[in-house]
Amino acid sequence: MADVKSDIEIARAAKKQPIIAIGEKLGISSDDLIPYGHDKAKISADFIASLEGKRDGKLILVTAINPTPAGEGKTTTTVGLGDGLNRIGKKAVICVREPSLGPCFGVKGGAAGGGYAQVVPMEDINLHFTGDFHAITSAHNLLSAMIDNHVYWGNELNIDIRRITWRRVMDMNDRALREIVMSLGGAKNGYPREGGFDITVASEVMAILCLAENLSDLERRLGQIVIGYRFDRSPVYARDLKADKAMAVLLKDAMQPNMVQTLENNAALVHGGPFANIAHGCNSVIATKAALKLGDYVVTEAGFGADLGAEKFFDIKCRQAGLKPDAAVIVATIRALKMNGGVKKEDLSAENVEALVRGCANLGRHVANVRKFGVPVVVAINHFISDTDAEIAAIKDYVDRLGADAIVCRHWAEGSAGIEELAYKVVELADGGQAKFQPLYPDETPLFDKIQTVASKIYHAGEVTADKAVRDQLKAWEEQGYGNLPVCIAKTQYSFSTDPTLRGAPEGHVVHVREVRLSAGAGFIVAITGEIMTMPGLPRSPSAERIFLNDEGQIEGLF
């Protein structure tokens, strides 16, 4: 194993084609691409508008079991499956999210795939890329500045500064900024008040960019952002501050999807990046819809496990955008399932069929959950060299009893050649007409009942609790006309419960909603549960300590 190359070494050795050539494979002329160097480009808004009326391809969702320190490889499988579909002669396009700098320099790493199933240029994608996140950060903080500026110059809108709900953002993990006091230093600096920062991927502006259909829809949604309340408790909108149009200007280029390529020179649209534990966790609607016009099959992912990313993909993104997925892939590793079965990380390489079977309860729950949306499922076993024949047989047998197939995939080590069987199965499911997609709850369900529905049917919770203030706030939003919005539950990714240490498939636990936030522009209500933070902190030993430039000026340490 000493000669196994790191992800960044594999990416650096890639034989990339000019991005213009990648676009030509999809019928995109050089005039319709806006190059960012030789290996990445944005697809112009005019070209995307010209696709209206073309037939849609099949939409494939890649999701996963709950993440563990053992690793699952959802993005790697998404990229590998896209390559695999192209390998078997299908015209497939990959759609994934852009990575956040927070995890890259924190503990999770980047999100460009791994091994021989990556999108490149890996370093650029995991760092500044085409500047989309910087544009989102700037647009968000422009609104923040205009709020405090409006108050400073007389507060014509009569904003109650105690009820300003709009925070600031930055794309980095920094727990010190979660709760702050602003405008200290006397009258010249404004009125002191409490505030705080979220990470950029939790910004409503990020969600809006990822759900907007076009620039006019973007501007409309930005105008609908509720920044706080007046003394009479009536909402104040971004459009009241005349901030929406300037924000749209900052986001004009960021709205155009980014196109890169896989190691096998297939097209990938990498656009938008909301986290699935604190936001809706999907790439942009505009990229997904463009890909559906450009390819016969579109492979996209939703963040973290199916209890978070897939549920929000179905209940928020598909509901708002009118998308109807044709099949779903649930990614699992034998190592992660053994960890769900009680095995410690240092013992995962040893065969343990008994623990694996115990841990399969987590996989079984996700399979059942995805089927509740009327979408056919296949399980992808992301292969590790430590997997034994007995363990593979055990998981295949378990999934077979669920009425589904579990397919061993070796794309990390072999690229598309290692995932052909899954590609054929996905085509069979997507073309079979089995999908009867429907969201989990209708629009008219009361907001608290929507939270209860997700908690009971997806998390298998026994009870949902919330303080009176939370329930009253939900009722107030219903009275203001927001009752038809879907809910976006912010919850730990590590468990079906709100306790990150509770692995497997827990039943009857309590989900406590401690805070709710209105994302009127994005079009959903955020319900924050457990100890989830919208501004993460760095670990004791962050990845940033091991990222550096080598003697050749190349980046080392990204993963």
From TrEMBL:
Coiled coil: none annotated. It catalyses: (6S)-5,6,7,8-tetrahydrofolate + formate + ATP = (6R)-10-formyltetrahydrofolate + ADP + phosphate. It comes from the Bacteria. CDD domains: FTHFS. Its EC number is 6.3.4.3. ATP binds at T68, P69, A70, G71, E72, G73, K74, T75. Pathway: One-carbon metabolism; tetrahydrofolate interconversion. The keyword Phosphoprotein does not apply. NCBIfam families: PRK13505.1. This is Formate--tetrahydrofolate ligase. The lineage of its organism: Bacteria, Pseudomonadati, Pseudomonadota, Alphaproteobacteria, Hyphomicrobiales. The gene is fhs.
